[in-house]
Design a protein that fits this description.
This protein has 136 residues and is mainly α. It is built from six helices and two strands; from the N terminus they run αααββααα. Helices cover 49% and strands 6% of the residues. Helix 1 crosses helix 4 and helix 4 crosses helix 5. The radius of gyration is 17 Å and the shape is elongated. The relative contact order is 0.17.
């Protein structure tokens, strides 16, 4: 499993919004500038976060984005699953995957399942607030 740029940038955006949340709505261009992420790329990530209810956005003068909850209420695992689609290490464990015809004699499926559970539990144990404090 490899976390893509999309997932990494989404976490950076969430941390940035959390760190600047006392200023109301934060313009996307400000986040892009602080994070060194192109505005064009942010325009592809933010709608996913808005649609999922993780952040809210307002258009026009004084508009921008802000978190919908406190930083400690966001689990890293949720953000990564939202932007990555799945954190499964192998195709046969992805959500909605066709049952593998070799599963009955597969000697590695137990290992992959355990790795997947550990990965999800690890990321679910970290919040945006933790990342703000860099205590991971």
């Amino acid at each position: 499993m490899m976390i893509s740029t999309r997932g990494r940038y989404a976490l950076r955006v969430m941390i940035d919004l959390a760190e600047h949340q006392d200023g109301g709505y934060i313009p996307m261009k400000d986040v892009a500038q602080r994070q060194g992420i192109s505005l064009k790329y942010l325009e592809r990530i933010l709608p996913v976060l808005v649609q999922a209810g993780e952040i809210e956005g307002v258009h026009g003068k004084g508009g921008g984005y802000q978190l919908t909850r406190a930083p400690q209420d966001y689990r890293v695992g949720d953000i990564l699953r939202l932007t990555e689609g799945d954190l499964a290490p192998v195709a046969c464990l992805t959500c909605g995957a066709e049952p593998c015809p070799r599963q009955a004699q597969c000697r590695t499926i137990g290992m992959w399942k355990q790795f997947s559970e550990m990965t999800n539990a690890y990321f679910d144990g970290i919040t945006i607030a933790d990342l703000m404090r860099s205590v991971v």
